[in-house]
Amino acid sequence: MQPNVVAHPEWAAEGTQRIDWVRRNMPILRQLEEEFRAQQPLAGKRVVVSVHLEAKTAYLALVLRAGGAEVAVTGSNPESTKDDVVAALAEEGLHLYARHGATPEEMRRYMGLALDLSPHLVIDDGGDLVELLHERPELLPDVIGACEETTSGVMRARARARAGQLAFPVLLINEARCKYLFDNVHGTGQSVWDGVMRATNLVVAGKTVVVIGYGWCGKGVATRAQGLGARVIVCEVDPVKAADALMNGCQVMPLLEACPQADLVLTVTGIRHTLRPEHLAALRDNTLLANAGHFWDEIDVTHLRSEAVECRPLRTHVEGFRMPDGRWLHLLGGGNIVNISCADGHPAEIMDTSFALQALSVRHLAEHGASLPPDAHLVPEAIDQRVAELKLAGSRIRIDTLTPDQVAYRDGWEA
Amino acid sequence: MQPNVVAHPEWAAEGTQRIDWVRRNMPILRQLEEEFRAQQPLAGKRVVVSVHLEAKTAYLALVLRAGGAEVAVTGSNPESTKDDVVAALAEEGLHLYARHGATPEEMRRYMGLALDLSPHLVIDDGGDLVELLHERPELLPDVIGACEETTSGVMRARARARAGQLAFPVLLINEARCKYLFDNVHGTGQSVWDGVMRATNLVVAGKTVVVIGYGWCGKGVATRAQGLGARVIVCEVDPVKAADALMNGCQVMPLLEACPQADLVLTVTGIRHTLRPEHLAALRDNTLLANAGHFWDEIDVTHLRSEAVECRPLRTHVEGFRMPDGRWLHLLGGGNIVNISCADGHPAEIMDTSFALQALSVRHLAEHGASLPPDAHLVPEAIDQRVAELKLAGSRIRIDTLTPDQVAYRDGWEA
Amino acid sequence: MQPNVVAHPEWAAEGTQRIDWVRRNMPILRQLEEEFRAQQPLAGKRVVVSVHLEAKTAYLALVLRAGGAEVAVTGSNPESTKDDVVAALAEEGLHLYARHGATPEEMRRYMGLALDLSPHLVIDDGGDLVELLHERPELLPDVIGACEETTSGVMRARARARAGQLAFPVLLINEARCKYLFDNVHGTGQSVWDGVMRATNLVVAGKTVVVIGYGWCGKGVATRAQGLGARVIVCEVDPVKAADALMNGCQVMPLLEACPQADLVLTVTGIRHTLRPEHLAALRDNTLLANAGHFWDEIDVTHLRSEAVECRPLRTHVEGFRMPDGRWLHLLGGGNIVNISCADGHPAEIMDTSFALQALSVRHLAEHGASLPPDAHLVPEAIDQRVAELKLAGSRIRIDTLTPDQVAYRDGWEA
Amino acid sequence: MQPNVVAHPEWAAEGTQRIDWVRRNMPILRQLEEEFRAQQPLAGKRVVVSVHLEAKTAYLALVLRAGGAEVAVTGSNPESTKDDVVAALAEEGLHLYARHGATPEEMRRYMGLALDLSPHLVIDDGGDLVELLHERPELLPDVIGACEETTSGVMRARARARAGQLAFPVLLINEARCKYLFDNVHGTGQSVWDGVMRATNLVVAGKTVVVIGYGWCGKGVATRAQGLGARVIVCEVDPVKAADALMNGCQVMPLLEACPQADLVLTVTGIRHTLRPEHLAALRDNTLLANAGHFWDEIDVTHLRSEAVECRPLRTHVEGFRMPDGRWLHLLGGGNIVNISCADGHPAEIMDTSFALQALSVRHLAEHGASLPPDAHLVPEAIDQRVAELKLAGSRIRIDTLTPDQVAYRDGWEA
Known about the structure:
The structure is a homotetramer of 415-residue chains. Chain A has an eight-stranded parallel β-sheet, with helices on both faces. The first copy, chain A, has an eight-stranded mixed β-sheet with strand order 10-9-8-11-12-15-14-13, covered by helices on one side. In chain A, 65% of the residues are buried. Chain A is globular. In chain A, helix 1 packs across helix 4 (83-91), helix 2 (27-39) runs parallel beside helix 15 (348-368) and helix 8 crosses helix 9. Chain A is built from 17 helices and 16 strands. With 415 residues, chain A is of the alpha/beta class.
């Protein structure tokens, strides 16, 4: 196997502390760790993980290892990689290839090194690893399947499947209810505001917040903005989602009309150049700009940077751009996803459900993947139910089950 | 055609006033009415409508008639039928078979009379009309298809389809986003509280409200309860929905544990006898009971009535039951769906989206139904989009469209 | 004593049922009724009550009677007087002078008849009774004091006191925390929406609601609008209150700017002609107008009526006005306070706290009023605390008390 | 004058950047800075400021200096003092006496050094500076008055006044509406959650949060918790506040009953040892503890520390305590006020209103203080209004004024 790439092996103790903290707050994974250790469902399997490489991902990797797997880990975004966590995982004996601030070329190289493990199973976040796998046909015979974490990767996997160019089954974690109902709505919803508050030390109440995109993530971001006292304007191209935003107390209008009213603009679209030159020109002095979508270029930062007559740091994670007409625009986290660039990403309990889906889906692939066609697949409903049950148990919550009479009644309709 | 059944022809003026009011507040249907009048998409078609027969449904029937159809109308629930609206529609020349307070036998007979029209198309709410149609094979050759309004009817249609016993295509209106996002969440969500407040003149703030069932309707009911200042406990058998409720600020627990804490219990499950004897025994003195689900027996009213040592009206739509141990339980609207039995049902603008889906789906069936297999079908996405666009237009709201660049970018993933 | 004025003595049974219902839901007054019956704090006292004469007020009058008082009751607003409740109280042996729909002259005459009782104590709502008392100096020697329910009456009492023209002490119920925190915020806040929903059967979610006035009542109305899914614009002349509205997620702007955005305008100012001709001219077609303030003329209904080219009822409690330019404006409840004209006024539990303050304040006056100077007085803090304690007890809620250590610590600062 | 105490003069550039950032976001103070510079209302005055010494306070000090004052600055809490800001202010030429992490003795000594300026005016936060002034009678003849920022200092000033031991007038900034409506509710309300999220990277939604104390600050903290998706239990000794919490959707119960349900406990009482040994014993494993009140010992940290069998850092600002029974309790920020110890304190725009009150009150004292008796005084209503007007202007918001007719109408009641 390839030798590790670890920038700061001496930071392992800090990384271990971080992992210990999230373990305390990820009761579902703790339960699965025990189960995996006892049952060894991944014995003999090689697994590559490429997800934002911080403490929560590290714990997932350790759970997979506890299940018997040999695990290689690389990051999915150079900004989110925590070198102390990398060091801690390496010390635990996993294969590590990652570095905070890596260049795109390095990122690609690290993924390649990880894939040199010749994995049976991969966990991907955005689809890059799956793409690279398809470029290395010699690896494909061993691959049982992949699990994909996010919307963007889901779109790519589906496109490949439609084109008949998917070489193995991909489980779409993002489409499970236990993923988007919690991770997208509440994970993104909260952590974006954690990032904004941390970066700016400004108040949300009383502000006019423009949220572009009202998918599950945008809805979470908008709901939390309302809960923090903001007035929310939503800009959305899908009329059904736009109407949904309206009915949830948001104003809805075209972006260009919203811009001059904004105190803060947040992009949550998955579309490059959502906030374009004409919008930047329509903003008022002192407007805050942040991105909560997957791609760093939802805001046209390149234009902003080239157009500005002055550009300087105003606070950690806040850059000020003085435009030719004198207005200052304030960009958070360089336009990178704000909950990761300006805060610590999704809360631990949120990743607990998402990663429990991952762990059980990897197990499902290990056990049943051979019989699955090379297509994009939904996570089995039983896994979704199991994760929710574990989540409730972890919160010390019990629920009812239907009585036999009620089941019969319900099934009567179906008979 | 069968002669009309109209209990109070002399009330037509009141009915017309009611219909006029909802017309003013249903801009989407107004738009479709004009379109239908100009294009006559239903010319020569016979349509039977069986939906809660009040003003909003009446307007839908008039829109269908404007599109060229011959229309017969009957109710779907004897409590919701408004005799003045029946009279007004009859005066307009439609075929009417309905009476407030009809017995189950009468209801069935009225449906039969309506079906004597030998319909090409039917609009159903709960599935009874579709069942009756299947009992009259002589009518089936003319039937192009049906549209089904609610969850319960959707379940029945799907069961028939699975069993290979569906004789014509059924469009599942309830599964369209423009239906459940608005009608179930906001229509039920608001009107249930309209009914509770109107029936009781009691405050919601500060109360402990137990909501049983956290589907789209239950979620709407719970959200509005929070918005009115209540503490909400959710009881739910699906662990994913239970976890969703938890993340939205509700407490989650088994029903029997929730009962002694309740000031008000609301059933929203679609399951008979959701609130059973053991639950009734666990409630405190003075607890309010109401049902917001489709069926009147989600609360075991029969048991309540037989167990009580005294039972008397305490206020219009509120009955008091004195239990053997001295506790009083207060039942709203006799256990019938509270927004209809104690208030005027869903708001007009909400039914505007639901019935726009119906009108466009009926048109779709008229135009394309012959080529659809006899199965349960989703409403075409284009209809959903169109309704949302009309809703936004009716609210004087414009939205953006993606630029060609953005479309290319998005489709890049899909290429 | 003057013979009763009771329009419909035959409706007493309905009135008794109404009173029974509120008694079940007013645990604080129930507790005080027992206490008053046992202790007879009002023995030998004559009390005149002039408050919205419906079931909750009736129960207050009965509690005072239970305390030993001879009680005369008249209404404070002809629209809110319930003839069945009047009949029920008369049957109970109280002196009654009231009729639904009384003319202003009749109202004044009824108050005069009530005052012929030559009261020791009066409960007033708006200050009219106190004014009339000052016009009859022969009655003043017997008067111990008065309790005033609302903001408007508080202003008049204070004005009299400042001018040295107040002949007896007035306790300002409205200024007690247990009044405005519950009655103004939650009582008005909820019941206004009860009235709007009942009158219109329209949805609140997705609407733009303009609330004029952000005092305690306006704040309650705005908060509930948000809780029901509306976007709220607040118009307010006090900059501090305006800024408070802003920080609570409302938009703030001048009224004329808000009008063209409104789906519904609500006046909550206590100022005549808040909504004037220029505002009416700026509204869109189909806008709803309602008043939630004390005075019927906060909306310039006279102008509306004279300007309209057509005016007709559109639904019970909704009048449509067609303006010369073709726009329709929809007025709720004739411009009278919407929670009373279109619904049943404040919830019972809310009036339970307000009227508990009244009952204990009347008792306080009976016991200590002779030593109070003729001025406007705050309700003693001990009464406020007592009412809150009873409210918590009625909701089966216990709270902590400070430990001796903590009291010493707190008092350390004060020593 | 005494030589400066500045720990890190080399950090001035960072401090200047911080001050520059808040200046951009404090439009009211910017406006007052211009005004003060032009009018020199503090010319010849010596002012001592003792408030949490970070960027926002620094900007206030600079505004006072712009108004002509000679200014000495010291901190009010060793944890909140930012050494880079101290350095920046010193470089600006103000007198500085502060150091992050100072001991109580040092704190007292620094205050003494600042007072050596022999101030005409002081700005205090908690009352320590005012206490020290009274211990140095030689300084009193020059003192015109003081402004007090917080509840705790207000209580002390009032106690002194009652005892006849206040030597100069004190303006109670905290009692101005523009203070408590914004600073206490929204400033504390938001920043506490900023601190909790930053310290823990945990989710708030779905948690049971116990808030002890429902004053303005506690209400803000509880409201934001609800807005972030938590279920909130309030513990409060004042029955009126407890009832208010109940009506705002919180559960209310004694603390000991709440403890076993808590995921997070927040003290906001101003009372030492609010969370005592018996409560700590009743908490579940993994409970988070944080303090949002003025004093670091609202949680009995001393007991926690002595009782624990193990105590170790789990994450920056989180300490884990293993209790003898095996439970872990997680303390945030060492029990110090969590928004300052774990985040950056109140948002800039919030301090903009609070410090505008300070600046205008200092000016008021400079101009009129000589004629004020040595008592605790409310801030003049005109200052409150002015600050609110400036706040609205800073948010580009206009509001209406009453018409002459409306004023006459309103005053009619008062005539």
